[in-house]
Design brief:
Layout (H helix, E strand, L loop, with lengths): L1 H15 L5 H12 L4 H8 L7 H38 L18 H15 L3 E2 L5 E3 H4 L18 E2 L10 E3 L5 H13 L7 E10 L11 E11 L4 H16 L5 E6 L4 E10 L16 E10 L1 H6 L8 E7 L1 H9 L12 H4 L3
Parallel strand pairs: 1-5
Antiparallel strand pairs: 2-4, 3-4, 5-6, 6-10, 7-8, 8-9, 9-10
Bound molecules: 3,4-dihydroxyphenylalanine.
Length: about 350
């Protein structure tokens, strides 16, 4: 009886010596420790033995079982370390090689500039106000004092979304951020129609024009509009604020000048120039020999525009401006072609 048991053990251990991987180890387990293995059958046959024989036979069987189990565990450890040794040998890794650097993303130069502008304006007490990129003709033009067929519309070739069927008020992609002035004034005025609160906001965002795409003109570009409305706001506030902005943006040495201009929604209107930072004002091809670079359009908010926004022009005055972050970058870094901004060329984008 016990001979048979040691025969079972011997056979199992011999067969285990040939096992080389996890799959055959599992088949071995099923064959030698599984339910219908000789050892387990032996256990179920214990019942046939006499009462005296049973305890010692049972003990012997248990001993064999644990001997097989520990042999199997031992084999498993050996297989694992053999697999590891083989893969270390086959996939040699030189840990002294320099690591591969991680490619870091970055913000688009326009976004960076937009944020610089907004952070300076935030320091100066301006809040950001966002308004839609898709506008009505009424918001984009009419309420800003561009009646239908007004010649000033010529300056802003527009992308209409529904040319037909909207009569006098078709939908278009905004040609400038100025319609945000009306939306903001109306929203502020709604909070207290008899005495609307003062406003000091910056309106950033993408604008669209039906332009031929060339080195100097694009169909999309960003603007940052500014709007200040309140009692006793004067042209001196406009000049002071924008000059201070130019110093914060381009340095204390930056010289500026204001030049009379025309916009339908401001009266009087002006353009702010900066002394050319390429030639220092002497005259060069960048400033077209004038010594000055145009940086933004501005003016005192037209009484009709105030009224359209719900602010009584007999009581309130205000100033506004519009400037272009891409244009600022082009001037600052002498970028000669505006198409780089939306060209998606990393060689350009990586420089910022
Ligand atoms: N909206 C004008 C444009 O896109 C820029 C501008 C000029 C905005 C004067 C203003 C302003 O708010 O006062 O050409």
């Amino acid at each position: 009886m016990l001979d048979k048991l040691s025969e079972i053990e011997k056979t199992a251990l011999e067969s285990l010596a040939h096992v080389r991987d996890e799959t055959s180890l599992e088949s071995w387990r099923v064959a030698h420790l599984g339910r219908s293995s000789p050892l387990m059958t032996w256990f179920s046959d214990l019942g046939d033995l006499s009462k005296d024989e049973r305890p010692s036979a049972g003990q012997a069987a248990n001993r064999v079982k644990s001997s097989l189990e520990s042999a199997m565990q031992q084999r498993q450890i050996e297989i694992k370390s053999a697999v590891l040794a083989r893969s270390l040998e086959e996939e040699k890794l030189d840990v002294t090689l320099p690591g591969r650097s991680i490619q870091r993303g970055r913000l688009h130069p326009s976004t960076q500039q937009l944020r610089r502008v907004l952070s300076i304006l935030a320091d100066m007490g301006f809040q950001v106000y966002l308004s839609p990129e898709v506008e009505t003709d009424e918001m984009n033009f009419q309420l800003l004092n561009f009646p239908p067929h007004h010649p000033a519309r010529e300056m802003q070739d527009s992308l209409y979304l529904e040319a037909a069927g909207r009569g006098e008020n078709p939908i278009l992609l905004r040609t400038h951020t100025s319609p945000g002035q009306i939306r903001a004034m109306r929203e502020f005025a709604a909070t207290n129609p008899t005495q609307p609160p003062p406003i000091r906001i910056a309106l950033p965002g993408m604008c669209f024009r039906h332009e031929q795409i060339t080195a100097r003109t694009e169909i999309q570009f960003n603007q940052v509009e500014g709007l200040v409305v309140g009692e006793h706001i004067t042209f001196a506030d406009l000049k002071g604020t924008l000059t201070d902005f130019a110093h914060r943006m381009f340095g204390q040495q930056a010289r500026t000048r204001f030049r009379a201009s025309y916009f339908p929604f401001t009266e009087p209107s002006a353009e702010m120039d900066m002394e050319c930072f390429v030639c220092g004002g002497k005259g060069c091809p960048v400033c077209k020999q004038s010594g000055w670079l145009e940086i933004l359009g501005c003016g005192m908010v037209h009484p009709l525009v105030l009224q359209n926004g719900g602010y009584d022009p007999r009581r309130y005055t205000g100033y506004a401006w519009g400037m272009g972050p891409e244009r600022q970058l082009m001037l600052r870094y002498k970028i000669e072609d505006i198409r780089y901004f939306w060209g998606n060329d990393v060689r350009f984008l990586e420089q910022f």
